[in-house]
């Protein structure tokens, strides 16, 4: 080796210490003096083998890492602004790929307002030159407002402040909302724009809004449970508003959002759900286009209504049907400009009735 001096351990400590505060760091050990014959060989004790099975697709098994770090800490900074911080029980650093692989990790994501979203998972990986963070296995996400996500995979894009979960992964979300309500959902895939507090549920959506307190006189019309199923749903966490839509490529006969409540079933092309303070909301749910509402309280008596729009009015405990509404009771049919269905008394009021018919069936 001649008179060239090598010093690995102090350089290793410098590299690990630098990783904690910045990404601008050389992770490979090198000669303290330049070598004309090429890079120096790494000492065997500096090499670490991660022999445990990995959940990361395509991750090379039995690959030798340049460094293995216990109780790993890392902060990602761009233009002087913290993007995310990661802690892990163990981490492995692969210099040629600029790859960091960690196990039993916990990440802290920072939004533009400084609020922190926490993520835990079995494994994670990120490339130092790409900055995106990927988490695998038992991924649990806790947002600043208390909303939680469970999935098997998550990708965070810090430059966009965006969380992505592809459609092939099932997602479960749950949160306790204002005024004693619980909102939870299942979907295939999710996109979450943290700056705008917008969540897009990408496919096979099922949202449940449940009351967890006793009904009050001003909110008596809100059922204990409302279940809405659709192809997609856009949730605005700032406005407490969820918009349900269907895939336009679906056949028309199947392109319906479905609503299930005690004593009532409904379907329509689109649905808006306001899940904020019920005492301050007039229409907490609105169904649009080709609306069908069916009363299931009495199996011996068929009653249903159709129209272009249905507003579920919680203050008056009614459903207001507009845009050419019709109500069917067994063999009878009533039409008018506006039809009000009183959910507490089963009385139907028709304004400006323009047709009534009695049929044999």
Ordered list of secondary-structure elements with their pairings:
Elements: H1 9-21, E1 48-49, E2 64-65, E3 67-78, E4 81-94, E5 99-110, E6 116-127, E7 133-142, E8 148-157, E9 162-177, E10 181-193, E11 198-201, E12 205-211, E13 225-230, E14 232-236, E15 241-245, E16 257-261, E17 264-268, E18 270-274, E19 283-295, E20 303-313, E21 318-322, E22 326-329, E23 332-335, E24 338-342, E25 348-351, E26 355-358
Antiparallel strand pairs: 1-2, 3-4, 4-5, 5-6, 6-7, 7-8, 8-9, 9-10, 10-11, 10-12, 11-14, 12-13, 13-16, 14-15, 15-18, 16-17, 17-19, 18-19, 19-20, 20-21, 20-22, 21-24, 22-23, 23-26, 24-25
Question: How would you describe this structure to a colleague?
Answer:
The chain has 361 residues and is mainly beta. Helix content is 4%, strand content 54%. The protein contains one helix and 26 strands. The chain has one helix at 9-21, and strands at 48-49, 64-65, 67-78, 81-94, 99-110, 116-127, 133-142, 148-157, 162-177, 181-193, 198-201, 205-211, 225-230, 232-236, 241-245, 257-261, 264-268, 270-274, 283-295, 303-313, 318-322, 326-329, 332-335, 338-342, 348-351, 355-358. The strands form two sheets. Strands 10-11-14-15-18-19-17-16-13-12 form a ten-stranded antiparallel β-barrel. Strand 14 and strand 15 form a beta hairpin. The protein is elongated, with a radius of gyration of 29 Å.
């Amino acid at each position: 080796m001649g008179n060239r001096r090598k010093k690995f351990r102090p350089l290793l400590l410098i590299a690990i210490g630098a990783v904690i505060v910045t990404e601008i760091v050389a992770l490979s050990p090198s000669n303290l003096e330049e070598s004309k014959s090429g890079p120096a060989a790494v000492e065997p004790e500096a090499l670490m083998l991660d022999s445990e099975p990995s959940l990361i697709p395509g991750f090379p098994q039995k690959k030798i890492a340049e460094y293995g770090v216990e109780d790993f800490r890392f902060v990602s900074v761009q233009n002087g602004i913290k993007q995310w911080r990661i802690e892990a029980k163990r981490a492995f650093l692969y210099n040629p790929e600029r790859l960091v692989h960690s196990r039993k990790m916990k990440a802290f994501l920072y939004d533009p307002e400084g609020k922190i979203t926490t993520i835990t998972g079995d494994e994670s990986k990120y490339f130092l030159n790409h900055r995106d963070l990927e988490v695998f296995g038992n991924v649990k996400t806790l947002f600043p407002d208390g909303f939680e996500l469970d999935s098997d995979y998550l990708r965070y894009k810090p430059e966009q402040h965006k969380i992505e979960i592809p459609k092939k992964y099932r997602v479960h979300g749950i949160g306790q909302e204002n005024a004693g309500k619980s909102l939870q959902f299942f979907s295939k895939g999710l996109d979450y724009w943290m700056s705008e507090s917008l969540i897009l549920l990408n496919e096979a959506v099922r949202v449940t809004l449940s009351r967890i307190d006793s009904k009050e006189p001003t909110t008596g019309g809100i059922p204990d449970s409302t279940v809405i199923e659709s192809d997609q749903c856009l949730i605005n966490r700032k406005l407490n508003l969820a918009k349900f839509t269907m895939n336009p490529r679906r056949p028309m006969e199947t392109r319906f959002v479905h609503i299930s409540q005690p004593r009532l079933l409904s379907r329509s092309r689109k649905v808006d759900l306001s899940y904020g303070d019920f005492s301050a909301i007039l229409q907490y749910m609105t169904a649009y286009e080709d609306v069908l509402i069916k009363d299931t309280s009495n199996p011996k008596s068929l009653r249903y209504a159709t129209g272009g729009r249905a507003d579920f009015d919680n203050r008056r405990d009614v459903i207001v049907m507009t845009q050419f509404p019709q109500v069917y009771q067994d063999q009878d049919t009533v039409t008018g400009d506006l039809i009000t269905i009183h959910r507490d008394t089963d009385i139907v009021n028709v304004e400006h009735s323009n047709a009534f018919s009695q049929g044999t069936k």
